[in-house]
Amino acid sequence: MPRTLTLFTGQWADLPLERLAPMAQSMGYDGLELACWGDHFDVLQAAESTAYCEKHWQLLGDHGLTCEAISNHLVGQAVCDRIDERHQSILPPEIWGDGEPEAVRQRAAERMRRTAAAARAFFSVKPASLGTEHRVVVNGFTGSSIWHMAYAFPSTTQEMWQRGYDDFARRWMPILDAFDAADVDFALEVHPTEIAFDTATAQRALDAVHGHKRFGFNFDPSHFAYQGVDPIGFIRRLGARIFHTHIKDVWWNRGDGTVGVFGGNTSFGDPRRSWDFRSPGRGDIRFEDIIVALNDVGYRGPLSVEWEDARMDREHGATEAAAFVRRLDFRPNGTDLDSTFARARRQADPSAHPRARA
Prior knowledge:
358 residues, alpha/beta, TIM Barrel, 14 helices, 10 strands, 43% helix
């Protein structure tokens, strides 16, 4: 397989890393995309302790695993969000504090700056035996102060939406500058509830931060397709800004016709739903088209399975997902077919070669 196959640990944070690592190896993965929650990756310890980073690499290496990205979605969500009681369940206690919204946002922003330093410290001590040099990436969310306006009623003006992008830029430009100082890239997972949730808003977010070189995307096709957004079009328009890729599947146009794209206030796995996340290969995403497009735009980073399927045992699902992605991925063609015909002709008739006639 030409690309590194990793498992995103966010959906496995109930398991200690010491237990998850051998499990991931047995399921067929090359490495882990470490989530900054549970005990999988502690931002403050990584930023401050070389010993902590080296111990993590030792644990991964003992199980034949590598790492090419870390992810801090939960804290990143709080940077721009309209904070309410739901955030307390996803944030570290020291970020939540007393729950005062602006104070939460400020603490979250500072933790994201520290995440850049932590990623640099961690990957700076990566053993050579665990992989070649690669882009250092932190995946995550940004939150959004305007997601509640997405439906545009009561009437929402472009000026109102623009204030949300301005707020995003004001809060994230200093974070991105910290990422630049650490030589680390930030990859926003384009996703409902974020400042970017489709191709148009991704471009608008990129414009808002003036094309900051450290701002890109964690491409996850599952969040596009059920909205009616073309994931292949996203790759072809913004491929140069794809810093990381999730393999996650979804099906849509299912259910009993009573629940639409907004979810009908139902839980994932409810059979009435028109769409739901599925184990890779069991949904409606055309992954071969995605691999072709990623190859066309020059993406050579990892393929990271974000496993989520309310109907399936996760260990079974993650195992079959690893096998699916290994069958799926392929290197781009490095040979021009017309030139092979010319070489074959020269080999068959040496006098046809220009030097033979000289």
